Amino acid sequence: MATSAVFPGVQPRAGFYESFYLRAFDPAGPLGAWIRYTVHKRAGASARGSLWFTLFDARLDAPVQQKHTSDALAVPPGGWIAIEDSRLGATEAAGECGGARWSLRITPSAPELRHLRPELLYRAPVPRTKLTSPAPLARLDGSITTPAGGEIDVREWVGMVGHNWGGEHAERWIWMHGAGFEDAPDAWLDASLGRIAIGGRTTPFIANGTLCLDGVRHRLGGLGARGLEVAEGVDGARLRIPGARGLTLGIAIESPVALRAGWRYADPDGGEHDVVNCSLAALTLDVALPGGGTGRTLRTAHGGAYELGMRERDHGVAIAPFPDG
Asked: Domain tally for the chain?
């Protein structure tokens, strides 16, 4: 299905959020970026757009973070979202935020991933967060200018482009992406896990995603999947996710202290989540194949992305001083 912005069709009385985002990293060294174009709308209010920029550099003590919010929000011709003069579409991302600038060409290496199954969940009231990845694996080329004026030549970086939207964030969530694996350069992982509040109670984690290995997509999790194991924190996670046709995926992802970016997300109803993102995470995947076949282990030193969204504030990660909503 063609990707398009959802926010233009939201009813005036409804609360809503939407996010288009990309991650990109240099496979030759621990340097990368996470950029978001978002929409936030409280019930009865007009939608506003925000640009979020995070630069991850292992040589620095902490990520570089900037944010800019504007009422100048639109869908550009041939694109998905424009906030002032910053824009994003299927093949291009360009923008400026707090002195940071980027101009990136996006070359998808894999077709769209629709995480939710069955497809009717995209039309159902629950879950209230919907997500897809228009490009679960992509090559990015161009340039990034840091707020300090440094120029970064982006040449054949590896990354992805994602999209989510809904009436509220999950009560707690994990998002992971992996690429640039040793000995498996075309493999990728894109998975989301969420706990949602229903009727005053919070569900256990539900996982949805895909592992692509040797050109074959293996679906992970889904409604009714049994055997999901999750241990998570701001420093990373250990997971075991059941897959289709008997595959099981073990995941170990590590988020170094200096590469944890803290943000605060506003919910349309006025609540807030603290979010910790590391887009240069170390990632190991242990793939157990059905029928007792020989398994596979995939590793990448900094090709993982790990995001944890939560309600608590005592996690110890500094939150960037930018309001949301």
From this structure: 1
pLDDT of 159 > 80? The answer is yes
User: Is residue 2 one of the residues assigned to a domain?
Assistant: no
* Residue 9 forms part of a structural domain: no
d(CA 212, CA 248) in angstroms, rounded, equals 13
316 within some domain:
no
Residues in the chain: 325
Determine the pLDDT at residue 68: 98
Count the alpha carbons within 13 Å of 226 in the hemisphere toward its beta carbon: 1
Element counts in the chain: helices (H) and strands (E): 0, 24
Give the E-state strand segments of 214-295 in sequence order.
Answer: 216-221, 229-233, 236-242, 248-254, 261-266, 272-288
> Residue 106's domain spans which residues?
15-310
**What is the DSSP pairing of strand 172-178 with strand 113-114?**
unpaired
Q: Which two tokens stand for residue 307?
A: 């995001």
Task: Tell me the C-alpha to C-alpha distance, in Å, between residue 134 and each of 8, 12, 38, 140, 320.
Answer: 19, 27, 16, 14, 28
Within a domain: 103: yes
Residues whose CB falls within 8 Å of the CB of residue 252, separated by 6 or more in sequence, listed in order: 236, 237, 238, 283, 284, 286
- Does this model's pTM top 0.85? My answer is yes
The pLDDT tens digits of the residues spanning 222-242 come to 988 899 999 999 999 999 999
